[in-house]
Design goal:
Alpha-lytic protease prodomain-like, 6 helices, mainly alpha
C-alpha cells in the first residue's frame, strides 16, 4: 500500500467515525427528548443539547475532510471552538439555575441505561478519532475527538447525577457535575482559539 493509499484509507476511517457519531447523536436527540420530558430532568435536556453540538462538530469535520487548504482547516477548528463555548455557557446557566431553584428531577432508570451506553460509545469513538487524526496529522479530527471525549464525560456526569438522585436522593449532584463539564469545555475552547491565533 502506498502512502497515498494509506492516507486515503485513514481519511475514510475518519469519515466513518464521524458518520457513526452523527447517527448515534441523531438518535440520541430523539431519545433524550422523550426521557427528559418524562423525568423533567435538566441534566437530560442539557445532554440532548450537547448531542446537537456534537452533531454540528461532526458535520464540520466531514466538511473539512472533503477539502484541503489551511484556511478551510482553521475555519473548521474555529467552528468547533464555538461549539465548545456554546456548550460551556449553556451548562453554566443550566447548572446554576438548577442549584438556585432546587430543581429535583424524577428518577430515570431509562436515562441511566442510555447515558451508560452512550458513555462507552463516545469514549470508543473519541479514541478512534484521536488515533486516526494523529496518523493523518489532522488537527481538526483530533480536536473533534476531544469534543466526543467531552460528550462521554458529560454522559458520565449525567449518569452520576441520575444515579445519585435515584439512590441517596442527592438532587444537587447533577448540577455540580455540570460545572466539571463547563470547565473542560471552556479549557478546550481556549486551547483551540489560542492555536488559531498562533496560526493566523
Amino acid at each position: 500500500m502506498t502512502s497515498i493509499d494509506h492516507a486515503a484509507m485513514l481519511v475514510e476511517r475518519g469519515k466513518a467515525f464521524e458518520w457513526i457519531t452523527l447517527g448515534w447523536n441523531l438518535i440520541g436527540v430523539i431519545v433524550l427528548a422523550f426521557l427528559a420530558t418524562a423525568a423533567a430532568s435538566v441534566a437530560l435536556v442539557g445532554f440532548g443539547l450537547d448531542s446537537l453540538i456534537e452533531i454540528g462538530a461532526s458535520t464540520v469535520v466531514l466538511w473539512e475532510l472533503s477539502g484541503t487548504g489551511e484556511a478551510r482547516r482553521l475555519r473548521a477548528l474555529r467552528m468547533i471552538g464555538v461549539a465548545f463555548i456554546a456548550l460551556a455557557v449553556y451548562l453554566l446557566i443550566q447548572s446554576s439555575a438548577a442549584l438556585l431553584t432546587v430543581h429535583q428531577a424524577a428518577p430515570s432508570v431509562a436515562g441511566i441505561v442510555w447515558t451508560s451506553v452512550t458513555a462507552v460509545v463516545m469514549f470508543s469513538l473519541a479514541a478512534g478519532k484521536r488515533a486516526t487524526g494523529r496518523a493523518l496529522g489532522n488537527p481538526v479530527l483530533i480536536t473533534e475527538g476531544r469534543v466526543t471525549f467531552i460528550d462521554g464525560l458529560l454522559a458520565v456526569a449525567v449518569l452520576l447525577g441520575l444515579v445519585l438522585d435515584l439512590a441517596p436522593g442527592w438532587w444537587w449532584a447533577d448540577p455540580l457535575a455540570g460545572y466539571v463539564i463547563v470547565y473542560c469545555a471552556a479549557r478546550e475552547a481556549l486551547s483551540i482559539f489560542r492555536s488559531h491565533e498562533g496560526s493566523s
